[in-house]
Amino acid sequence: MIGRQSLLCFDRATGRPVWSAEVHRDGAMFKNAKATGASGTPACDGERLFITFANKDAVFATALDRAGKPLWQTRIGDYQIHQGYASSPAPYRSLVLVSADHKGGGVVAGLDRKTGAVVWRRERPKAPNYTSPIVLSIGGRDQLLMTGCDVVSSLDPLTG
Hints:
The chain is mostly beta strands. It is built from no helices and 13 strands.
């Protein structure tokens, strides 16, 4: 484990820094130089920014406002680092979907975007994996797709 994890905001027209928000002061999990804590991509619903980090042997989802002020932080589950952590959150309707697959047993969950409360949670196989939740409309029905761990899973994104 090493130091802090932050989210940085840059002006898209100039590239100049706008703000930096510390998400975790310490406890960042680091396995090798090719898999940094910056492998995941933040998501935005127009009001809130969402980011997930592996920290202190767990994965946490964090929401910040557009000025970088932390709104909530939710522990998703334990995490045993294999190569790193790279999953990105996915806003969907009133939820933000997050995942944390690892060799100790993974999880995918739907969190309330406003509060971070766990609305639903599903266990995943015990296998290292770096997938992000994705929602696609298939046959006129929205489906949360998760690949990896030797399976392809399709879940109802609102209920899991």
